[in-house]
Design a protein that fits this description.
Two copies of one chain form a homodimer. Chain A is of the alpha/beta class. Chain A has helices at about 15-20, 25-35, 40-55, 60-65, 90-105, 120-125, 145-150, 180-195, 210-220, 235-250, 260-275, 290-295, 310-330; strands at about 70-80, 105-115, 135, 155-160, 175-180, 200-205, 230, 255-260, 285-290, 305, 340, 345. In chain A, the strands form two sheets. Chain A has a six-stranded parallel beta sheet with strand order 2-1-3-4-5-11, sandwiched between helices. In chain A, strands 7-6-8-9-10-12 form a six-stranded mixed beta sheet, with helices on both faces. The two termini of chain A are about 50 Å apart. Strand 2 (about 105-115) of chain A pairs antiparallel with strand 2 of chain B. The first copy, chain A, binds a DNA duplex through helix 2 and helix 4.
Chain lengths: ~350, ~350
DNA sequence: CGACGGGCAGAGAGCGCTCTCAGGCGACCG
DNA sequence: CGGTCGCCTGAGAGCGCTCTCTGCCCGTCG
């Protein structure tokens, strides 16, 4: 295991101690600890040995105090009502963030927003300079988060395009999102290419940009899709089932469905089977997200649009890092780097 | 919203600035900021006003540097293989932790362990004094975490009884767990009280103490239960279904099942219905956890053993706080506070 | 009326680190 | 062989805060 020696109980060694042991000055030890540039190799070795022997670990607070960098990033989780973490989407994104943060030697400070009244605490914390930056997920259009973050004057990156007006104008917080619209187009085109003629859509909630973008993509291809072909869900399995039932009632002749996420697609699938409709023979079905735990478990497995969720999490961190570095170079003049739209990919399985 | 004034861009006000504005010394401002004990009311007001006007927020790093307390607690998530966060159990526990931490003005630093090789990084981080304490979840018996934590000499509390030998001896890391054994006993007794005579058990994995404790509780009541009445699962829905099928094969005459968690119970329920067995008429079924999203959604709804998961999370924080305070009072002599076992409660629904 | 004690404010010394600046020494060039 | 330049190293000044210690002022008691 770790060869880290047991430190003297109670008190951890300081730079000073290492310097004394190595027979050099504090400054030299500091240089070595921070990369060792500009120090003779012999001294570097000597210092490294002393560090090793004493089990020296730099004091983070002291370092932060002078560098004004604290090596920590806040991840803000604004819980609208229910289902947050247990959302696999979330898990993957946070994991991507965690991994990338680790690679950057930064820590992840979790800020869980406890209802609307809690935004004040969050704002205070962010404004207090405890973290170098913040990552947030824009869930709803009416979310206060963007304004809180702006007021706190802390660099931030969003996961998912925020819905507030002007967010896309470039002047605001950059975001990482997948190409919802393009992915939706691809899904619908795929259904058309299979010869389907009446393609319905089960949409997500109107206050989420991802859902709206997917509707837009659907409409891009089916310019003249009647309103009867779109049903509204809320991204849950149950809502997908309900929407499917509604669609079948309105348009018993439909021969394809594009659902805005896999969970709703699986709900739709359930209803289709209950009604004795075969998938894909009678009705072809495409989902979105490629949540493999769902998409591969259904019968038949779902054809769906994949987005690299973990990659999006990592990208959020990289974007934030870039903002941070730019800001360090010339404070104030933070020309925010553009947002990133990641590509999607159609994954063909058996349902379409 | 917040009345926090826009701070002068670029530089945040210091204690010094507040002192100057209020016409007092730095020390006095510090006293006021930290509660204001021993300061004349007139001065307190004056300082408070200056703080408000300047939008002063204490510099956390500077404070930590001298107090040696950093107001942050690590939550370690050791991911065995899959399903971590998306586990609703986890979500609830982390939420409890988050809430209690907020109440204590502490931050939650998330440490996500990326495979076995990553333990070194975790150990280094914990040993580096970045956090006041650590909270971890003991998932598997062979987990390295306890030893890592001990080596790092950082106060810690476990969620769930760790499986390593001596863990319960009191000398080690305290933990919070629910009364798995007692809950299991209650479940089985309930089934017996309904007149059932052949009560089977679907057990969880052998390397988790919670699963083992539930088996023990089952055996406490059914001293002479034949081995044919116990089947092994791994806490997943699928495994519950498999175990149920196995049990029915071995003991077609069984008239009750106690599953070690709700997920397995729902799997068992599925199989029972597929075989045309009525629940509870033919076979009574009891789960564990009271994961309401599952237990209330099944048909019939599950009778199950409830544990206060969020409360356990909060308790973990309180326990840690107590260790921290004790340690501050007399360093070294950290007589670890005892672990806590929280009660369980049988929730009667329709399945038994 | 004077001495003493308690309560409250201020001065100052760090906490452990980084980073600038000056100084020293060797090397290279004239 | 001497001067100068450049590369390393060390000294020292903070970063913003807490906390002890000293000292002042007022009230109280003898």
């Amino acid at each position: 295991m770790s060869t880290m020696p047991e430190p003297a109980p109670g008190s951890r060694p300081t730079l000073e101690a290492v310097a004394a042991r190595a027979g050099v000055s504090r400054a030299t030890v500091s240089r070595v600890v921070n990369g060792g540039a500009g120090v003779r190799q012999a001294l570097v070795d000597k210092v490294r040995r002393a560090v090793e022997e004493l089990g020296y670990v730099p004091n983070h607070a002291a370092r932060t105090l002078v560098t004004r960098r604290n090596g920590a990033v806040a991840v803000i989780i604004a819980e609208p009502e229910f289902r947050v973490f247990s959302d696999p989407f979330f898990e993957q994104q946070v994991r991507g963030i965690s991994r990338e943060l680790t690679a950057h030697d930064s820590q992840l400070v979790l800020l869980w927003v406890e209802g609307p009244g809690d935004y004040d605490r969050i704002g205070r914390y962010l404004g207090g300079g405890h973290v170098d930056g913040a990552l947030a997920f824009s869930v709803h259009n009416d979310d206060e988060l963007p304004s809180i973050i702006r007021r706190a004057q802390v660099p931030a990156v969003f996961g998912g395009r925020p819905g507030w007006p002007g967010a896309t104008a470039g002047l605001a917080v950059p975001y990482v999102d997948c190409d919802n619209r393009g992915g939706a187009r691809e899904a619908v085109r795929h259904l058309l290419s299979l010869g389907r003629e009446r393609v319905a859509h089960i949409a997500g909630p109107h206050d989420q940009t991802s859902a709206m973008d997917r509707i837009d993509g659907y409409r891009d291809v089916l310019l003249d899709a009647g309103p009867g072909l779109i049903a509204q869900g809320d991204f849950t399995e149950e809502s997908g089932a309900r929407a499917m039932a509604e669609l079948l009632e309105r348009r018993p002749d439909l021969d394809a469905v594009f659902a805005a996420n896999d969970l709703m697609a699986s709900g739709a699938l359930r209803v289709l089977r209950e009604r004795g409709l075969r998938v894909p023979e009678d009705v072809a079905l495409v989902g979105f997200d490629d949540m493999t735990s769902i998409a591969e478990a259904t019968d038949p497995p779902l054809t769906t649009v994949r987005q690299d969720i973990e990659g999006m999490g990592r990208l959020m961190v990289r974007l934030l890092t870039r903002v941070l570095n730019a800001q360090e170079a010339e404070p104030g003049a933070g020309s925010a780097p553009g947002s990133v739209i990641t590509p999607t990919e159609l994954v063909r399985r058996a349902s379409a």
